[in-house]
Amino acid sequence: MREHDSVSIVGETEWVSLADACRVCRVREAWVLEFVAEGVAEPRAPADSRHWQFDAAALRRLRVAARLRRDLGVNPAGAALALELMDELERMGWRR
Question: Which CATH class is domain 15-91?
């Protein structure tokens, strides 16, 4: 991953580690584990969290979930629901 803490620096074909995802999203590893358990994002090699890697789409979802947690106190299940609703709105043609 490059030096900046922005999801835009991760190309669509690049992957970042769990540690980098935590740093970019400014959350503890335990929160990312909970977000993944709730379906917020899906890592590569999901069987072993020590080898998890996230692509740009997963990082975007993790960042939104982290902001919901930090700004509104939403728990991981609530963040997953909010993201699901946002995805549905996008499929219906609404813009974020």
Answer: mainly alpha
